[in-house]
Amino acid sequence: MLLSFDPDDVRAAERPLLAAGVPLMDRAAFALAVHAGHVLRAVRGRVGGAHVVLLVGAGNNGGDALHAGARLARRGARVTALLAAPQVHAGGLAALTAAHGRTLRVGADGPDGDAPAGDGRAADASGGGRGGAVADLLASADVVLDGLLGIGARGGGVRGAGGELVDALARVRAAGGGPVVVAVDVPSGIGVADGTAAGAVVRADLTVTFGAAKPGLLLPPAAEAAGAVETVDIGLTLPARPAVARLETGDAADLWPVPGGSAQKYSRGVLGVVAGSGAYPGAAVLSVSGALGAGVGMVRYVGGAGPQVLAAHPEVVVGEGRVQAWVLGSGVAPDDETQRDRVRAALAHAVDHGEPAVADAGALDLLPERVPAHVVLTPHAGELATLLRARGDDVARADVEAAPLAHARRAHDLTGATVLLKGAVTVVVGPHGAVYAQGDAPAWLATAGAGDVLGGVLGAVLAGRSADAVADPTLPAALAALAALVHGRAAHAANPGGPVAASAVAAAVPGVVRALVGA
Ligand SMILES: NC(=O)C1=CN([C@@H]2O[C@H](COP(=O)(O)OP(=O)(O)OC[C@H]3O[C@@H](n4cnc5c(N)ncnc54)[C@H](O)[C@@H]3O)[C@@H](O)[C@H]2O)[C@@H](O)CC1
Ligand SMILES: Nc1ncnc2c1ncn2[C@@H]1O[C@H](COP(=O)(O)OP(=O)(O)O)[C@@H](O)[C@H]1O
Ligand SMILES: [K+]
């Protein structure tokens, strides 16, 4: 599991070590220089002679970049530091200057010249170009180390001279080629704790993060700015509970309901599916496909698409009966009152009798005011905005897309449900601070019906672990993240690197599950 921690937790973990004189910045800078060295060898063949540009802000994040730059300079790299603040980390600046790195102060008027080392003050000096000089430097760099802002960032992108550097770097990259960008701890400008990415934000190819990942490296939309993430152990002891977690391959086997030797279909879990309608029979078929692909004990289908479901899946039982979990609402048309009544009844049953339920699409507006966490909502951004508006919030789809975690959390707080918010990175919020961010899927998965398959996969897992999911209110969030992981991997497996239809995703689910839980 990839765990991330809020800046406050990271600072609290650093404090006793710093008080004891542990050289945390040295550890961070050493690891950063090692990773930058790997990148330089990959793009240039060697560190010696390579051109490295440091973007340096006012804080310790800039200090990391300067110390790492000094190490690279000592290995023969040509290092130029662009100082975006009047005062930068004194020790880092001294180290870089001692290693014969160059420093240029940048501000509203462009680069001002070499800054003296020693007191960390980047005073004006003679020499240095203006105008396009920064752009030329960035364009000629092999690697840029982004040390403008770390966990001390306060929202809304990089402001001031640093923001201008971010824009200049973006223009260089947009023109084609350009340097490999390595972010120090986090891409500068992201919302480190909430994953927002407004204003001037560095787009990195690699982020080298210290102590533990930060939430913004996992959460949308900021996660996209991080590139690959390398976590460096600098010896921090962090709390047991992360801010945001991401399930990985090794986590699936413990969570998945693998049948024991004495299993029979009822003990493995029966899933009731109330999905599809005259207008959308395909949603019922796809939802059932996802559930069967995930290995549910049995599916009972309830609704008007029985013939289509049976034609595709003769193993399904059509009609009501006892179930251990539900999938509700996929493809249920707003004017299909009969099917909507069935969804309402199933939701009430799920709440009253402790049966986990997936509430998708057409079930979202039928939700009771409050539900337990074993009811899992699976909206996309537009549906979540609608749900929040129905509860009095003035929110549009774009607001949800700009801050998915905040809005998923809001929906959880308002309803009590576990919330799985679909997207390029799927965010899951449950009670007691359970938050997951899964970025497992190719963009090809953004195709009609893919969400129905996800609902089926999740329903199967909830049916297989029904009693556990009711007893432990944080488990549905973990199982929802697990379903997103399997669903995303199935999209890859169905046609690596190419387009997929929702039914092909469902067909790939059994193989993905085998790979994850097979001995
Ligand atoms: N505490 C430590 O000893 C360690 C800290 N480390 C590094 O230190 C970083 C944190 O350093 P700091 O606490 O100094 O904070 P930062 O280096 O993240 O920056 C804080 C500075 O940026 C300014 N600032 C904040 N938001 C801004 C914005 N939106 N636009 C422009 N300027 C803004 C603030 O006024 C402040 O001067 C970590 O991310 C990590 O890179 C590492 O060296 C590991 C050890
Ligand atoms: N850019 C993207 N990259 C990867 N996966 C995506 C992207 N956009 C959407 N998805 C995933 O594709 C699926 C689409 O589901 P949904 O929007 O409910 O479609 P439908 O209602 O047609 O089934 C979700 O699982 C979502 O997480
Ligand atoms: K940074």
TrEMBL record:
<comment type="function">
    <text>Catalyzes the dehydration of the S-form of NAD(P)HX at the expense of ADP, which is converted to AMP. Together with NAD(P)HX epimerase, which catalyzes the epimerization of the S- and R-forms, the enzyme allows the repair of both epimers of NAD(P)HX, a damaged form of NAD(P)H that is a result of enzymatic or heat-dependent hydration.</text>
</comment>
<dbReference type="Pfam" id="PF03853">
    <property type="entry name" value="YjeF_N"/>
</dbReference>
<feature type="binding site">
    <location>
        <position position="283"/>
    </location>
    <ligand>
        <name>(6S)-NADPHX</name>
    </ligand>
</feature>
<comment type="function">
    <text>Catalyzes the epimerization of the S- and R-forms of NAD(P)HX, a damaged form of NAD(P)H that is a result of enzymatic or heat-dependent hydration. This is a prerequisite for the S-specific NAD(P)H-hydrate dehydratase to allow the repair of both epimers of NAD(P)HX.</text>
</comment>
<comment type="similarity">
    <text>In the C-terminal section; belongs to the NnrD/CARKD family.</text>
</comment>
<dbReference type="InterPro" id="IPR029056">
    <property type="entry name" value="Ribokinase-like"/>
</dbReference>
<keyword id="KW-0511">Multifunctional enzyme</keyword>
<keyword id="KW-0413">Isomerase</keyword>
<dbReference type="GO" id="GO:0052855">
    <property type="term" value="F:ADP-dependent NAD(P)H-hydrate dehydratase activity"/>
</dbReference>
<comment type="subunit">
    <text>Homotetramer.</text>
</comment>
<feature type="binding site">
    <location>
        <position position="331"/>
    </location>
    <ligand>
        <name>(6S)-NADPHX</name>
    </ligand>
</feature>
<dbReference type="InterPro" id="IPR004443">
    <property type="entry name" value="YjeF_N_dom"/>
</dbReference>
<feature type="binding site">
    <location>
        <begin position="422"/>
        <end position="426"/>
    </location>
    <ligand>
        <name>AMP</name>
    </ligand>
</feature>
<keyword id="KW-0067">ATP-binding</keyword>
<dbReference type="InterPro" id="IPR000631">
    <property type="entry name" value="CARKD"/>
</dbReference>
<dbReference type="Pfam" id="PF01256">
    <property type="entry name" value="Carb_kinase"/>
</dbReference>
<dbReference type="GO" id="GO:0110051">
    <property type="term" value="P:metabolite repair"/>
</dbReference>
<keyword id="KW-0521">NADP</keyword>
<feature type="domain" description="YjeF C-terminal">
    <location>
        <begin position="248"/>
        <end position="516"/>
    </location>
</feature>
<dbReference type="GO" id="GO:0052856">
    <property type="term" value="F:NAD(P)HX epimerase activity"/>
</dbReference>
<keyword id="KW-0456">Lyase</keyword>
<feature type="binding site">
    <location>
        <position position="451"/>
    </location>
    <ligand>
        <name>AMP</name>
    </ligand>
</feature>
<dbReference type="GO" id="GO:0005524">
    <property type="term" value="F:ATP binding"/>
</dbReference>
<protein>
    <recommendedName>
        <fullName>Bifunctional NAD(P)H-hydrate repair enzyme</fullName>
        <ecNumber>4.2.1.136</ecNumber>
        <ecNumber>5.1.99.6</ecNumber>
    </recommendedName>
</protein>
<dbReference type="InterPro" id="IPR036652">
    <property type="entry name" value="YjeF_N_dom_sf"/>
</dbReference>
<feature type="binding site">
    <location>
        <position position="452"/>
    </location>
    <ligand>
        <name>(6S)-NADPHX</name>
    </ligand>
</feature>
<feature type="domain" description="YjeF N-terminal">
    <location>
        <begin position="10"/>
        <end position="242"/>
    </location>
</feature>
<dbReference type="GO" id="GO:0046496">
    <property type="term" value="P:nicotinamide nucleotide metabolic process"/>
</dbReference>
<feature type="binding site">
    <location>
        <position position="188"/>
    </location>
    <ligand>
        <name>K(+)</name>
    </ligand>
</feature>
<feature type="binding site">
    <location>
        <begin position="60"/>
        <end position="64"/>
    </location>
    <ligand>
        <name>(6S)-NADPHX</name>
    </ligand>
</feature>
<keyword id="KW-0547">Nucleotide-binding</keyword>
<keyword id="KW-0479">Metal-binding</keyword>
<comment type="similarity">
    <text>Belongs to the NnrE/AIBP family.</text>
</comment>
<dbReference type="GO" id="GO:0046872">
    <property type="term" value="F:metal ion binding"/>
</dbReference>
<feature type="binding site">
    <location>
        <position position="380"/>
    </location>
    <ligand>
        <name>(6S)-NADPHX</name>
    </ligand>
</feature>
<keyword id="KW-0520">NAD</keyword>
<feature type="binding site">
    <location>
        <position position="185"/>
    </location>
    <ligand>
        <name>(6S)-NADPHX</name>
    </ligand>
</feature>
<feature type="binding site">
    <location>
        <position position="146"/>
    </location>
    <ligand>
        <name>K(+)</name>
    </ligand>
</feature>
<keyword id="KW-0630">Potassium</keyword>
<feature type="binding site">
    <location>
        <position position="61"/>
    </location>
    <ligand>
        <name>K(+)</name>
    </ligand>
</feature>
<dbReference type="InterPro" id="IPR030677">
    <property type="entry name" value="Nnr"/>
</dbReference>
